[in-house]
Design brief:
By secondary structure, the chain is mainly β. A hairpin with a 6-residue loop joins strand 1 and strand 2. The relative contact order is 0.12. The N terminus is likely disordered.
């Protein structure tokens, strides 16, 4: 508590003036003598400190109330799956933070570990610079030195995908390998998820592997199989897919 009251006095002296509560009158406090601070009441773990300043020259007085917050014990970043993801078209995002206890000051300063990859401004908005991984640190401003580190990934996202095969027909008992081409060619995440859809009578005979190999067992009736590839490196919430129809006969 002494640290906070001392800090308050330093801030008042540095400012050189005090604002009278409920008024717009400012008093010069650089030459104030005999300032007093008294604790008026306690609200939860917060303290309201009442102070009074007096102008040494004119005798004018001004009172003020200051809410003294408890120190931060923990800085918490809102939970997210994996790192904060940034990419072209989605190149900035605001950090969502809170301090515990809830009565602590809810303000932070921000630093980026590698500004060649990402920067962070005074409002906690992270901006992508170039592909890579880094961290951003949010530190409580109350002097407690409590902080949280947030992982940041700036990615090259997939914007397009095209499915192809050497042929668009396959006979029962045979296999066919399909290929997925991504745009751009070298995204951060190159993964592709494959799926196959067909008539119910064909389902037990048709299988698509994780690598895009379509296998049709013997006895499969003739029909069409729609093979779809979904890019895993697209922007969060975006669906980048392509479908190729393969005839079984």
């Amino acid at each position: 508590m002494r640290w906070y009251i001392a800090a308050l006095l330093v801030l008042l002296a540095a400012a050189g003036c005090a604002l009278a509560e409920g008024t717009d009158k400012e008093l010069d406090v650089r030459n104030i003598k005999g300032n007093t601070l008294t604790i008026e009441s306690t609200i939860r773990s917060d303290l309201i400190v009442h102070g009074e300043v007096k102008d040494a020259g004119t005798g004018e007085k001004a009172g003020f109330d200051v809410l003294v917050h408890p120190p931060t014990k923990k800085v918490i970043a809102e939970p997210m799956e994996g790192p904060l993801y940034l990419a072209e078209g989605f190149d900035q995002a605001a950090l969502v933070l809170r301090n515990e206890p809830e009565e602590a000051l809810q303000y932070w300063t921000y630093t980026a570990a590698n500004e060649k990859i990402a920067t962070v401004d005074g409002q906690g908005v992270v901006h992508a610079v170039s592909p890579g991984k880094t961290t951003v640190t949010a530190t409580a401003i109350d002097g407690s030195r409590r902080h949280a580190k947030i992982a940041v990934q700036v990615a090259v996202e997939v914007t397009g995908i095209a499915v192809s095969a050497k042929q668009t027909e396959v006979a029962p008992g045979k296999s066919l390998t399909l290929k997925a081409s991504l745009t751009p060619e070298k995204p951060t995440e190159k993964g592709v998820e494959w799926s196959a859809a067909c008539e119910p009578a064909m389902e037990e005979y048709v299988k698509i592997s994780k690598t895009g190999q379509l296998t049709v067992r013997k006895g499969c009736p003739s029909g069409a199989v729609r093979v779809t590839a979904r890019a895993l490196g697209a922007l969060p919430g975006a669906e980048v897919t392509d479908t190729l129809e393969i005839l079984v006969r």
